[in-house]
C-alpha cells in the first residue's frame, strides 16, 4: 500500500500547491490513498466546507485538522456531516465530528486518525496517550494499516507518542510546526515516524507568512498583520509504503516538491 501524506496546507497558495502535488505524485508513485492536513487551508486559519470539498476534489481521501479546527464558524455543524474531515480525537466527548475514519479503495483499507498534543498547545485537551487506545482497538478490527497525524508543538511529545504507538500503527507523522524534520525512520516495532511533515504553500516566507511583518513584530514587539506569502511554492510531506497484511511500514520517504 502506498500512502501520501501532505503537511499543513497554508492558504490559497497551499491549496494550489497540494493540487499540483497530488496530481503529479498519485500516478507517478501509484498512490492508493492521500491524506492532507488542512487546518490552515482557509487564509491560514482553519478550514471551510467549500475548501474541504476543494481538497477532496483535488484527490485527498482524508483531511485532518488540529488546534485551528474551530477558526471558521461554519465548520462546526459541517464536521458532523462530513466523515472524511477529522478533528483531533482527544477533543471533549460530544464534540461535533470524529477523530478517525477507515477509508477504502483499490481493494485496500486505511485507518486514519489525528490527535492533538498538549505541551505548549491550546486548547488543552484530553490526554492523547490515553484516548488513542480505544480508537486504535476499533480501527484494528477493520485494518492493520493505520496512519496517525499527531498535531503538536513539542518535539519531545511527538517522539514519545511515536514510540508509544510503535508496533501498533503503521505510521506516526507530526504536523503543526510547518518545518519538515530530517528524522524520518522506521521504529523497531515497524512504525514509520517523522517528527514534522512540513507545510504546503509559499516557502519564501516565515512558515507561510510574509517575512517583513514577522520580523517587524520581533524587532518592535508591536502588533502586525501577518499576511500569507505567495512565492516559492513547495509541497512538503511523506510517502509511505506499507505491508497490506501486517500493517508494518516498509519505507518512509520525505517529500519536498517544488512547484
Question: If you had to describe this structure to a student in words, what would you say it looks like?
Answer:
- This protein is α/β, with parallel strands linked by helices and 259 residues long.
- The chain has a single domain (2-258), classed as 4-Layer Sandwich (Purple Acid Phosphatase, chain A, domain 2), CATH 3.60.21.10.
- 26% of the residues lie in helices and 28% in strands.
- It is built from six helices and 14 strands.
- The protein has helices at 11-28, 49-58, 75-79, 128-140, 155-165, 211-220; strands at residues 2-6, 8-9, 33-37, 62-64, 85-86, 100-105, 108-116, 146-151, 171-175, 185-186, 192-194, 199-202, 233-242, 249-258.
- A hairpin with a 5-residue loop joins strand 10 (185-186) and strand 11 (192-194).
- The chain starts with a strand and ends with a strand.
- The mean pLDDT is 97.
- Fe cation 1 binds at residues 8, 39-40, 178.
What profile does the largest beta sheet have? 8 strands, mixed
Uncertain spans:
none
- At the first level of CATH, the class is Alpha Beta
Quickly give the structural class.
Answer: alpha/beta
Report the portion of residues in β strands. 25-35%
User: Percent range for helical residues?
Assistant: 25-40%
- Radius of gyration using CA atoms only: 17 Å
The CATH architecture term is: 4-Layer Sandwich
What is the overall number of helices? 6
- Whole-number mean pLDDT: 97
Annotated CATH topology: Purple Acid Phosphatase, chain A, domain 2
Q: Give the overall silhouette.
A: globular
Q: How far is the N terminus from the C terminus?
A: 26 Å
For CATH, the homologous superfamily is named as: Metallo-dependent phosphatases
Find the count of extended strands (DSSP E, 2+ residues): 14
What is the domain tally? 1
> In sequence order, what are the helices and strands, one letter per element?
EEHEHEHEEEHEHEEEEHEE
Amino acid at each position: 500500500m502506498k500512502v501520501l501524506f501532505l503537511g499543513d496546507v497554508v492558504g490559497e497558495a497551499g491549496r494550489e500547491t497540494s493540487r499540483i502535488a497530488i496530481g503529479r505524485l498519485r500516478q507517478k508513485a501509484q498512490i492508493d490513498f492521500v491524506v492532507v492536513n488542512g487546518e490552515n487551508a482557509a487564509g491560514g486559519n482553519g478550514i471551510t466546507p467549500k475548501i474541504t470539498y476543494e481538497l477532496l476534489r483535488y484527490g485527498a481521501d482524508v483531511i485532518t485538522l488540529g488546534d485551528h479546527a474551530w477558526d471558521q464558524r461554519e465548520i462546526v455543524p459541517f464536521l458532523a456531516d462530513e466523515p472524511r474531515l477529522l478533528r483531533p480525537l482527544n477533543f471533549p466527548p460530544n464534540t461535533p465530528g470524529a477523530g478517525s475514519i477507515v477509508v477504502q479503495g483499490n481493494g485496500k483499507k486505511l485507518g486514519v486518525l489525528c490527535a492533538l498534543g498538549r505541551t505548549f498547545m491550546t486548547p488543552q485537551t484530553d490526554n492523547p496517550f490515553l484516548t488513542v487506545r480505544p480508537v486504535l482497538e476499533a480501527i484494528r478490527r477493520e485494518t492493520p494499516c493505520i496512519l496517525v497525524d499527531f498535531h503538536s508543538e513539542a518535539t519531545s511529545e511527538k517522539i514519545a507518542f511515536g514510540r508509544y504507538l510503535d508496533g501498533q500503527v503503521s505510521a506516526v507523522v507530526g504536523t503543526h510546526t510547518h518545518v519538515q524534520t530530517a528524522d524520518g525512520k522506521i521504529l523497531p516495532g515497524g512504525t514509520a515516524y517523522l517528527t514534522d511533515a512540513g507545510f504546503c504553500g509559499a516557502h519564501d516566507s516565515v512558515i507561510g507568512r510574509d517575512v517583513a511583518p514577522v520580523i517587524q513584530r520581533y524587532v518592535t514587539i508591536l502588533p502586525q498583520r501577518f499576511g500569507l506569502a505567495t512565492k516559492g511554492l513547495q509541497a512538503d510531506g511523506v510517502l509511505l509504503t506499507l505491508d497490506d497484511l501486517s500493517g508494518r511500514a516498509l519505507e518512509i520517504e520525505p517529500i519536498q516538491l517544488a512547484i
